[in-house]
Amino acid sequence: MSNQNIWFVTGASKGLGLTLVKKLLSQGYKVAATSRNISDLENAVGVTSDAFLPLAVNIKSEESVQQAIEKTISTFGKIDVVVNNAGYGMLGGLEETTDQEARDNFDVNVFGSLNIIRKVLPYLREQRSGHIINISSIGGFVGGYPGFGIYCATKFAVNGFSEALDAEVKPFGIKVTIVEPGYFRTNFLSEGSLIVPKNPIDAYQNVRDSQNLHQNQMDQQQAGDPEKAAAAMIKIANQPDAPLNLFLGEDAYQLAHQKIASVQKDLETWKELTTSTGF
Length: 279
Hints:
With about 280 residues, the protein is of the alpha/beta class. Helices cover about 50% and strands about 15% of the residues. The protein is built from nine helices and nine strands. It has helices at about 15-25, 40-45, 60-75, 100-125, 150-170, 205-220, 225-235, 250-270, 270-275; strands at about 5-10, 30-35, 50-55, 80-85, 90, 130-135, 175-180, 195, 245-250. The strands form two sheets. It has a seven-stranded parallel β-sheet, with helices on both faces. Helix 1 crosses helix 7 (about 225-235). The protein starts with 5 loop residues before the first strand and ends in a 5-residue tail after the last helix. The mean pLDDT is about 95.
């Protein structure tokens, strides 16, 4: 692929999505970018150009997503790279997170991405090419963090359907990459971006400690540079053999290895019991 390719990026008014859109435009790519509020998106990107198509999209609405895909095709003629970036963090213990709060996180992080995939695939299958990049998290591979159960569950879901998607669309010449970042210095942990439960339970001190750590100590101190993360995504989009899993950040690299080692230890320790269950 080259900078002649057309990118479609969701959740582009802030965070990693915004950094990616700015970098793509600076390198000559044509970009359709979505956000719930088009004014916020236009102000954040700060570029007026025929190469930039800002779109107000509610990713929870199939109709809204369909209109955005059609507008992009009618404007640029095609879509080559789709980045499912829209999403938000949820930090609350499982017992204190309401059914609605949990479903809201799944509606955006999981079902929103599925809406994009479902509506763009007819075009990608027809052109027999394309690359779907689903932004997950190291929390979609390692889930042992107090307070992040629902968020990690949404990202585990993204990893799960992305692996199946990769197997399903490979015959059509379409690539899939799961991006699993560690901590990057975006607004992910800032007030208004990281959602906490409305009815916290005092007994969960470990969750409150995690909340305090992330919101008051780690915010804007993260080691990861979003500019370098965006550059990495552009690089893999230009590779014919793009990876299915792209971990980003030294922390993500170490945590992924720890998870793999832990699973391998359980497999070998309990091998006899595990393999004893056949007829």
